């Protein structure tokens, strides 16, 4: 596989170099609103799909061109390295699509092509007002009615909800007492009657998240991902890719942001250069760890609690780079209206949550201590 990946990387670099005029429209990562950012991402995905590069690494029967999944990782790496921000939609697609392909291949064949073109963006509906980290406590209900499920309830903290067409939704099909054994996952079209989406505005002023309400929403039973009651297994399978493929996309993005910071720093500032060196080392640790995890997933391995290490490294590195930008460019960071500084501020606000969403850093460290290192319990 190494030769295949290396050859693919060389061809991709050649294409990027030869297509700079067409790619120039997709270089900016400065957007005034979340809606504008997602719309720009969809246009870029369409361009990558039509060129063929956005299809490599995805199964042919689901709109792709085949090849090992790591070809997707090469695309994200090379785009960011060349200065072209990877569309945000790929982050969630890399998290969810492997689970849909694994548990519902027929459904994936129908809906993944539209996601790859950027026309039918997916969102992830897990968290609820009283069920964030404890998904087994969720109450969004789905009851079977003939060839449909009827869904009622609420989801919150839905990333990219404002630009999505579909939402992979974890619902309760069993009794409340059944906890994680009574969960199922449905792919629900957000334009279905009875669905209401309300944007949630971040501190940066962007509608980064959304609440989604379901009022007796009828969903075809063939939108079930896995079997009824298999939602917890789907969610746990999906979690691996949130630590692996998603983290790889983010590390490529962090590398581009760090490169920007390096270019803005004078070589005579010894303190700043030392700080940049520390950030580079942190990024390399993240890259090596995430790359290893991505390769294991591509090989079909089932990963365990050790992937919590990836989550801790990702959140901390993400925050460290933006914190460095704040301290090293403090005046411009705080007061400038230039696109570059507006982008830095938006990134900084985003990273405040990077050690919370997808599993808080404190919980991840506890998992590492208990289940990876086997450390004694506090007070033991």
Automatic annotation (TrEMBL):
Catalytic reactions on record: a 2,3-saturated acyl-CoA + A = a 2,3-dehydroacyl-CoA + AH2
Protein's name in the database: Acyl-CoA dehydrogenase
Cofactor: FAD
Keyword check for Nuclease: no
One CC-aspect GO term: plasma membrane
Family under the similarity heading: Belongs to the acyl-CoA dehydrogenase family.
GO molecular function: flavin adenine dinucleotide binding; oxidoreductase activity, acting on the CH-CH group of donors
PANTHER family: ACYL-COA DEHYDROGENASE, ACYL-COA DEHYDROGENASE FADE29
Limits of the Acyl-CoA dehydrogenase/oxidase C-terminal domain: 229-373
Alphabetic keyword roster: FAD, Flavoprotein, Oxidoreductase
Residues annotated as domain Acyl-CoA oxidase/dehydrogenase middle: 123-217
InterPro entries attached to this UniProt entry: Acyl-CoA_Oxase/DH_mid-dom (IPR006091), Acyl-CoA_Oxase/DH_mid-dom_sf (IPR046373), AcylCo_DH-like_C (IPR036250), AcylCo_DH/oxidase_C (IPR009075), AcylCoA_DH/ox_N_sf (IPR037069), AcylCoA_DH/oxidase_NM_dom_sf (IPR009100), Mycobact_Acyl-CoA_DH (IPR052161)
């Amino acid at each position: 596989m190494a030769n295949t990946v290396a050859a693919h990387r060389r061809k991709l670099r050649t294409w990027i170099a030869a297509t700079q005029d067409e790619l120039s429209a997709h270089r900016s990562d400065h957007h005034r609103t979340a809606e504008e950012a997602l719309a720009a991402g969809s246009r870029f995905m369409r361009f990558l799909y039509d060129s063929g590069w956005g299809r490599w690494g995805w199964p042919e029967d689901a709109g792709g061109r085949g090849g090992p999944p790591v070809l997707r990782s090469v695309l994200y790496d090379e785009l960011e390295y060349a200065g072209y921000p990877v569309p945000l939609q790929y982050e969630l697609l890399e998290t969810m699509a492997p689970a849909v392909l694994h548990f519902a291949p027929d459904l994936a064949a129908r809906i993944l092509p539209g996601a790859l073109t950027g026309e039918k963006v997916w969102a992830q509906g897990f968290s609820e007002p009283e069920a964030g980290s404890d998904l087994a406590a969720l109450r969004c209900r789905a009851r079977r009615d003939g060839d449909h499920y009827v869904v009622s309830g609420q989801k919150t903290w839905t990333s990219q909800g404002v630009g999505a067409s579909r939402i992979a939704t974890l619902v309760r099909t069993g009794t409340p007492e059944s906890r994680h054994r009574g969960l199922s996952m449905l792919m629900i079209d957000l334009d279905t009657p009875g669905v209401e989406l309300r944007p949630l505005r971040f501190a940066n002023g962007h509608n980064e998240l959304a609440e989604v309400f379901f009022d007796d929403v009828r969903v075809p039973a063939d939108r079930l991902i896995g079997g009824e009651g298999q939602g917890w297994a789907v969610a746990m399978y999906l979690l691996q890719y949130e630590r692996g493929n998603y983290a790889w996309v983010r590390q490529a993005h962090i590398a581009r942001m760090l490169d920007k910071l390096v270019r803005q720093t004078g070589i005579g500032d010894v303190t700043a250069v030392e700080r940049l060196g520390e950030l580079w080392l942190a990024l390399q640790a993240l890259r090596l760890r995430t790359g290893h995890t991505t390769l294991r997933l591509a090989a079909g391995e089932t990963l365990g609690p050790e992937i919590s290490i990836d989550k801790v490294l990702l959140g901390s590195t993400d925050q460290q780079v933006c914190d460095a930008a704040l301290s090293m460019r403090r005046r411009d960071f705080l007061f400038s209206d230039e696109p570059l500084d507006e982008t830095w501020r938006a990134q900084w606000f985003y990273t405040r949550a990077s050690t919370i969403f997808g599993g808080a850093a404190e919980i991840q460290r506890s998992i590492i201590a208990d289940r990876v290192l086997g450390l004694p319990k506090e007070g033991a």
